[in-house]
Amino acid sequence: MSLHALIMKKKLHLTGAQERIVKYIMDHYDEVIFMTCFKLARNVGVSETTIIRLAQTFGFKGYPGMQRYLRGSLKNRLSTVIRLEKSISHGSSVADIFTKSIRQDITNLTRTLQEMPFTALQEAVDSILAARCVYFIGMRGAHAPALILCIYLQFLNRNVVLITPGLGDIWNRIYSIGKEDLAVAISIPRYYRLTVELLEYAQKKGAKTGAITDSALSPLARYAQWVLPVHCQLDSFIESYTAAVSVASALVTAVSMNNPEETMAELRNHEELWKEKKDLISPMRRLPFYEPKHKK
Q1: For the domain with range 3-87, which CATH number is right: 2.60.40.10, 1.10.760.10, 3.40.50.970, 1.10.10.10?
Q2: Facing residues of 162 across strands?
Q3: Architecture of domain 118-274
Q4: pLDDT tens digits, one per residue of 47-56
Q5: pLDDT for 203-219, tens place per residue?
Q6: What's the pTM value of the predicted model, to 2 decimals?
Q7: Is the peptide bond preceding residue 222 cis, with omega within 30 degrees of 0?
């Protein structure tokens, strides 16, 4: 379990100095496991006492205990990553790139599952069920999981609003949010400033708030009552939203299982409408313009 996962599990509220320490540790993991407390404190710009207090906040007796934990976590983490990387070549062919990307997403999904705080997941489901309206905030790549949540919660007759650029004035769309509503923001590094500002606004209006982001140290976490952390590492110029999409799908499924009878009734109504309007095409049906032309 990573430090981020410990923060979520214990529902810790870190000071600004403690947040800087955790960020430094995560950014320099393989160096910190061999650093003295004095050197770590000097590199971060805090006192040794602050380092020791952080270790005690996590439940360790002192810095040595936290350092041993970090070494064990790194060993477990590398065992998975190394096995994946050794299974493919380091070439740059399309097949190599495809294989490596898929394997990295498998790692992202696995680590997201291992470190998911299920109490926060239950809180997320409960808040969606209790909300008068759920506002989903997803910009750029985060639009994908936000859209999935909106589409399928609408199938369950939930009142939802999708907030993203290009769909009218953004601030007017969230202006009416209130205490009976829920705002869920989705963003991973590098975080989109507008997403953070919208979640902060929802919090100030008294709405319930949640976030799907990479860690408890995300700027979204400051304004969220619950956080669902997702791993997003990808050796590319883009970040991976695979785990975020998976979490979105799991949330919808969990909400649907709260009242199976009501869910089945809503889905039957949708099926009848789709059948009436002929919206869906059977995979066995061949469209006229795909008919092969036979030579005479």
Answers
A1: 1.10.10.10
A2: 136
A3: 3-Layer(aba) Sandwich (3.40)
A4: 999 999 998 8
A5: 999 999 999 998 877 88
A6: 0.70
A7: no
